[in-house]
Every structure is written in C-alpha cells, then in structure tokens.
Specification:
58% of the residues lie in helices and 0% in strands. By secondary structure, the protein is mainly α.
Length: 84
C-alpha cells in the first residue's frame, strides 16, 4: 500500500511539474503558441484533479491534506501509517 501512495504522489507531482514547465516555456519563448500554454494548463489541472481523486488514506479513504504531503507518515484522521 505504501508503494501505491508513493506512486500516486509521484504521478500527481510529475503532471503538475510538466504542466507548469510547459506554461513557463511558453512565457519564456514569448512566441504566440497558445496550444503549448493550453496543454500546460490542462496537464496541471489534471494533476490537481488526480490528487483530489487518489490522494486518500488507504485505510479510512478520507482525503489527505495537501500541505505537508511530503513529510506525512500517518493519516491525520485514523492514525494509520501511510508512508515509510
């Protein structure tokens, strides 16, 4: 179960970072390339939606908080260990 939580965290963070990088590249290049900006925005939104759907405690299934997600070891609701 812990591996699944790490995988969920890595996938969600990767989507958000890729989306933000695409938007940043579009702003740095300053070429009118709306598809790159739109793609970055869509990928970032999908990353946040991914977290809203899957970032849950594997035991009590409650939505885990986003703040402190990197150091979170125990579910703040049920107290079960969710990370190594």
């Amino acid at each position: 179960m812990v591996e699944n939580m790490k995988k969920i965290k890595n996938i969600g963070n990767a989507m958000i970072v890729v989306g933000l990088l695409l938007m940043g590249i579009q702003l740095l290049i300053d070429i009118i390339v709306p598809p790159v900006l739109i793609a970055g925005l869509i990928i970032t939104c999908i990353g946040y939606i991914y977290f809203l759907i899957f970032w849950r405690c594997p035991f009590c299934r409650k939505q885990l908080p986003f703040q402190g997600m990197f150091g979170m070891e125990y579910c703040p609701y049920c107290g079960n260990k969710i990370d190594d």
